[in-house]
Amino acid sequence: MLSPTFALWRATALAMAFACTACSLPPTAFSGPSPEARAGAKALGRGVNFGNMLDAPREGDWALSVEQAFVDLVGRPGFVEHVRLPVRWSNHASADAHAIIEPAFFERVDSVVQRLLDRSVIVILNMHHYRQLDGDALDPAEFAVDPAVLEARFLAMWRQIAQRYANHGPRLLFEVYNEPHGRLDAGWNDLLARAVATIRESNPTRLLVVGPTQWNSANALPKLVLPNDPHLILTVHHYEPFGFTHQGAEWAQPTRPTGIDCCSAADQALMVGLLDLAQREATRLGGYPVYVGEFGAYEQAPAAARLRYVHVMRQALERRGLPWAWWELAGDFGVYDRGLGRFYSDLTDALYGP
Ligand code: BGC
């Protein structure tokens, strides 16, 4: 039988040995991207955002709903390889920390996701416009929640979404949050890590799209800390020159004057410079693939200049091997005229043509 003193000494020694073994191990090596992340990013190719539909406070509030006619467009040859599907979950979930997502809304999203996947495209399902999380004013038809539960709700929604789609194949990607900014500028890295950990409880290898603050600006990539996870794709959004792409857009205050041209040498330097910055930062972050999940120009931009903008951006993106998605399908940045039931052929050809 061991004396109490020896037993205590042995327990202490074992504890110290274990602690020392743990301490002497190198910290978990940063994994960098998996082959699946690289291949998954490449497969995204050219895409389109189904914007202003499920990301409105309620579907239809911004004049558009997901119509079967839109879904049918994406399977056509020579159009898109992927659809980014923005969804405003926060306005369809209970106001408490559990953020229980309304069953009818879940069923609606299920149906859209499945019909898109049935068209053989890749689908990026995101969380979009949780206004209060960014510290923004609420939109009409939105409700405020107790600020103390904002982040718990974010994670609770992701837990439900991740569980709901856990059995889908790899052609479904999740994007953690669209354009974090404002209130999130300070705590985004931490919240991102917690969201990725939450999703990983049920989806250990699903590809996740993650991006920096300042509305997913490449300029904010130096501040981004990535969770140590191999199945990530980095995303940035690109609307420069902003005075050109957002001319006349009433939601981008102050409203920019219209009649602005594109693309001078200085414009082009700005446009390609941001893509180069994104690629340099992606290398610094471990070589993760970069996806430009939004770029586009508002319908009030002069038509010929808008085509020049598309030409410069598409060429710059494709020369760098960057997958991309145009903002957006059928609204006021759109490539599709919903009223006439046809594509704006010049814009669509410039984007998706040979
Ligand atoms: C927003 C849209 C907006 C677009 C262009 C997107 O990220 O979700 O509401 O129209 O950027 O400003």
Could you characterize the architecture of this molecule?
The protein has 12 helices and 10 strands. It is of the alpha/beta class and 354 residues long. The protein has an 8-stranded parallel β-barrel. It has a two-stranded antiparallel sheet with strand order 9-10. It starts with a helix and ends with a helix. Residues 1-27 have low confidence and may be disordered. The structure holds beta-D-glucopyranose (BGC).
Mean pLDDT, as a whole number? 93
Q: How would a textbook summarize the main sheet?
A: 8 strands, parallel, barrel
Portion in strands: 5-15%
Bound molecules: beta-D-glucopyranose
Q: How many strand segments? A: 10
Rg (C-alpha, Å): 23 Å
Report the structural category: alpha/beta
H-E string: HHEHEHEHHEHEHEHHEHEEEH
Shape: globular
